Fold each of these.
Amino acid sequence: MDNDENKDEEDWSEYASAGYSTAYDPWADLVPLEEEEEDDYNFDSDDIIFSCTPPPSNDGLDNLCRMGACNYCMARLSGKSFTWKEANDIGESLTNAAIKRGAEKNEEVEYCPFCEDLFVDIKMMAEMITEQLTKYEFKKMQLGAHFPKDQIITEDELRTQYGANGSQAIKSAFNDALGEQLVSNIENIELVKEQPEVMLLIDTLTLEPSIELRSLYLYGRYKKLERGIPQTRWPCRSCKGRKDGCESCEGTGQQYATSVQDQIGEPLRAAFEARDTAFHGMGREDIDVRCLGRGRPFVIEMKGPERRYADLKEMTELVNSTSNGRVEISELRISRRSEVARIKGTDAEKSYTIRFKIEGECDTEKIEETISSLEGETLEQQTPQRVAHRRADKIRKRKVVSISNISVEENEAQMDVRVESGTYVKELVHSDEGRTVPSVAGLLELPCEVIWLDVNDVHAD
Ligand SMILES: [Zn+2]
Ligand SMILES: [Zn+2]
């Protein structure tokens, strides 16, 4: 999980690092002199360069005009203050003034050498993107542009040479200009650099926008009131979760008909118009174990949600009514990605009620005493056989915090037990053929068989 998170952040930072309005190149005005001398050689239209005095001097502006700078780049590189809304008009009047002074635009220049006419199309581009974005519910957007590296380098050289000192680089200028358009086109959105709900990336080569709807995270607690439901989806063992399933899973691809994940996630997924869900519980109970009390904390992730804003009370009722007594949720609130790690990393003590059968003759008092004697004990638990295929084989030490409500009727006993996180509770009773020491079965020297087990509380949050 943590790795995924880092990877995501890194990928995005590659194109988001341009930042917004303040991303001037601090070294832009520190161009060494000898580079300036080499410049005529670098720029193939050197015949039209009359002077290297940078804008806002008239000579500098005349240069930009002769080179064929578009109105936007005229404004951007002029050293005059402007907003993107007025950039076209300001650039036009600067160009006209330069022409009046006798600077002739080089007719052979087909595209603006600074932006390759990227800014000229920005309004149309913004309209096309707006049309796609207005399908979705969001308030916070992060914007990024991917430029070919050589275009960035070329523009940087030209801008430091012919633009006013401190002129904004093409990448952040493009982000600003497009961002300003989108913010004015779409109501109630803002541009952010962190925690965006929508990430928009423009490939400036193809002008293709890619829109990513960031996951929506919801925190809550769930109770599992019926046995036989796994916490998360479980692919069919026979077909390994093939899309069209197989005979043994009746075409579902799933080992079990439902899961806590789907009981909670499917009604929410439909409501938020999400693509899929991911479920993260604070630990998990076995399929045959109920989870009662206040319930188990979880974070559910809505992937690609087209809707984001819902009345969470209504959402809670929706889940509880569709689940119809199988799974019940409470305390639903908006969460964030970082809480997944917290949920996964919390070692919460758990309280259980467990009922079991004692095979053989033993008097009630001795059974009660034996069970009580386990309170405060530290168990040594070798990885149980039932999970050995997916867990490393080792001995874990776990403490039995408390035992209460012991009752014994004939050869059945029941108790409430509170244990450290990660304790195998069934094994505390039946000993797993001696792998858990001490245990009820071990101390009584009689086989014990668990009848049922409930989680009564996850002591966290
Ligand atoms: Zn331009
Ligand atoms: Zn199957």
Note: The CA atoms of residues 367 and 444 lie 7 Å apart.
Amino acid sequence: MEEGLGSHSSIANWVLGQRVSLLSIGAEFVDDDWRSERQSVCDSCEYKAKVRPDGILPEVDGCGKCKCPFDPKVGILSHYRRSGQEDDKLTKTEMAQIVAMRKFFPSLFVRSYIRCPHEDGNKWEAIDKKHKKLKK
Ligand code: SF4
């Protein structure tokens, strides 16, 4: 049977595609415990909302502040960005530049750590600090 855009498998395929794309820009992911601690902060946040991946897929839980689906956002530790563009929304053009140019012009790119965008400050900070220390 053919998959429609409204199906759960279309979301699962989108998440898988996102993870593959993130790996192509050097993504590191947090482990399950770390991810679930971040997720419980998001679950009790006033910005928890329904967001629509790619504008056409079915709505899923996500961050209403940055409009990112929790999967994969909550599980990402870091990935490369164009230097100076770390605070802008990551676009497909920038991703293509990272993939094509980072090997030849490494100084143009920086590893960027994924943060919670809450205006009161990064609500994942204490969790991230704790897990980074445990990893050392
Ligand atoms: S603002 Fe932070 S804590 Fe709140 S939903 Fe977004 S990422 Fe999660």
Note: The chain has a mean pLDDT of 92.
Amino acid sequence: MEVTTVDKNLYYVNISNFLSTWVYKDEDLCFLVDPGPSFTIKLLKKNLEHLKIGSNDLDFILLTHVHIDHAGGVGNLIEYFPRSKIICHPNGIKHLINPEKLWRGSLKVLGKAAELYGKIKPVPKNRIQFQKNVRNGIIKVIETLGHAPHHQSYIFDKTLFVGEATGFSFSTPEFIYMRPATPPIFDYDIYVDSIQKLLSMGLSNHRICYPHFGMRDNAHLMINHGYKQISTWLKVINNFYEKRKDINFMENLISELKKEDQIFSNSKLLDKEIRSRNSTGVKNSIYGILGYIEKKKFKNIKV
Ligand SMILES: [Zn+2]
């Protein structure tokens, strides 16, 4: 089985070493965060059965955002769980009801990988809701736009399910690896506003749970790593902007980022397969930041 028990009632299901689907279950409440793409829903279902979550037990499916690797399989999952409510940012709801645009966007950004994730099944409107406070405020919803225009994070019982609001983190007990999660079309100011909002909440006594991947104690410290990292990346990429047409631009930029950003340089400690899968995400994040700088330069605004 791919289930890891983190704490009493809190688990994560390891979906092919790239997505942690977080699952909480006690006598009164059962929810999961980010079910993953349609390709892996059967695997998730099997793991939920292992956790003795029956078809009437799952109260909520919380989506941090509706990108295909997080939410592409939600339409398949709800067929097994007829009474679960999907909680999603208002900007994401239309994409779940009619996923055509989301699918085309996924093909454009991810190419073949989108096909591997699998088609996105439409979700009936009456299964999706936006709530600010889920189950009378036991689960708090925090709008954290930036990685996507339909991104939100959740706080429940000293645990922050952060999504990709502060970046992509592959952290093990031995080391922390992080990089910004800033694909095009990216707005630095919105992304940083969300990070600052999370920092202002003082979550040092909360654990932080990532969809990619795993968890850490002291959410505040980890959010702060994400904050410092995005500032460093903006500075370094801005310094490299004029060289963007050079043949070795990407390679040179990445090695400069590794020099300036210790946590990003820990990519050398990642498993080979994860590292190669992650390299597309690194480039997409760089393109997002480049696009932001370009837009600013076009408007004659100093970055
Ligand atoms: Zn995403």
Note: Residues 127 and 285 are 32 Å apart (CA to CA).
